[in-house]
Amino acid sequence: GVYVSWRCPNQKWDCQRVASFSKCFCGHSLQQHDSGSRTLCKYPNCSCKHFAWVPSNPEEVGEFWLRRRKDFKENQWRAKCKCKHSHEEHDANGNHKCTKCSCPCFQSNFLCAACDRRWEEHETFFENVSERRENGLATGIYFLPFSEIPSLRNMVLTGKDDGDVSYIKLQSKLNALTATAADSKKVNAATKNTSLSTTMMTS
Ligand SMILES: [Zn+2]
Ligand SMILES: [Zn+2]
Ligand SMILES: [Zn+2]
Ligand SMILES: [Zn+2]
Ligand SMILES: [Zn+2]
Q: What is the 61 CA–ligand 4 centroid distance (Å)?
């Protein structure tokens, strides 16, 4: 299967694990991108040539308080550039020029909740299992996207001191999960889900 993740180059842990419903800079989900070329967006009239993960909810940029606001609407929330325009108002390709003002490239007005760096310092990676193993990155059940385990995701997102610490916490929690799943069927089911979410780009 192909593992899709988002992190800073040379980093040994993922800031985000990308699932099929995860959002691209162009505003469309990974599912809506071509599985052959892996990156081209298939949505009618969308010019996006390369899937690039963007946060799709305030928790992913560490803004946990936003959801408590009475007027908060998740489907209206968008990750924004310093120019105040959303990613959808920037060119899907190249330097991501703003289409509403003279802003030359998307510069996130938020920091990554996992490593505290800006969106533009990250890249979306498409890797196979051996590439990930060579780089010491999580594979198999350890790759379960954070978004599929909300409690783990939140723990990872709030462990802001150091990305490594958060990642180690996640790993040990996953180890514990696997160990305590006395019912082997549970483990099988979890493994099955993982492979589903990591193989969707190969068809
Ligand atoms: Zn698109
Ligand atoms: Zn796209
Ligand atoms: Zn901008
Ligand atoms: Zn702008
Ligand atoms: Zn990060």
A: 20
3-state secondary structure of 16: strand
Q: What are phi and psi of 75, to 5 degrees?
A: -75, -5
Ligand 2 midpoint to CA 148 (Å)? 21
Tokens of 144: 């379960």
Q: How far is the CA of 31 from the centre of ligand 2 (A)?
A: 10
C-alpha 41 – ligand 3 centre gap (Å): 21
Ligand nearest to the CA of 114: 5
Ligand closest to CA 100: 4
Residue 172's Cβ-side half-sphere holds a number of Cα atoms within 13 Å equal to 6
Dist CA 176 CA 185 (whole Å)? 16
Mean pLDDT split into 10-residue runs, the chain, 203 residues: 92 92 95 82 95 92 85 90 98 96 97 93 94 92 77 55 52 61 45 44 42
